[in-house]
């Protein structure tokens, strides 16, 4: 079984994540990129949407999480996204998520961006710990 990749890039959403009160009150833009790895060999022959993971479904999942319940840390948000992605479809064997604060509240004339990248395999869902709550 091969490991193929579906990638969604350049997604931008408005959310209320952050450790500072103004971030959760005012909100800000977040960039999200994701990759999921699965075996797409059936699609090579079938050309059938049922044999793959629908990227529109993945987009809606990410949108709902980023625009939904606030997280204090983007690391927490990225972990939430990973859990949802791996639970979405049992064919997804691993996933990587990048969450970027596009205008972080940093002092200085040029704030740039800050990002966190998390990658997990399916077995992570079965480990004991709070990430499975």
Notes on the protein architecture:
The chain has helices at residues 21-26, 41-46, 55-66, 74-88; strands spanning 4-15, 28-38, 94-101, 114-121. The model has no long low-confidence stretch (mean pLDDT 90). With 133 residues, the protein is of the alpha+beta class. It has a four-stranded antiparallel beta sheet. It is built from four helices and four strands.
What's the short story on this structure?
This protein is of the alpha+beta class and 133 residues long.
Question: Secondary-structure map with pairings?
Answer:
Layout: E1 4-15, H1 21-26, E2 28-38, H2 41-46, H3 55-66, H4 74-88, E3 94-101, E4 114-121
Antiparallel strand pairs: 1-2, 2-3, 3-4
Helix pairs in contact: 3-4
What is the first-to-last residue Cα distance?
31 Å
State the secondary-structure class: alpha+beta
| Overall average residue pLDDT | 90
Beta-strand percentage range: 25-35%
Helix content: 25-40%
| Number of E-type strands | 4
Query: How many helices does DSSP assign?
Result: 4
Low-confidence stretches: none
Radius of gyration (Å): 16 Å
Largest sheet strand order = 1-2-3-4
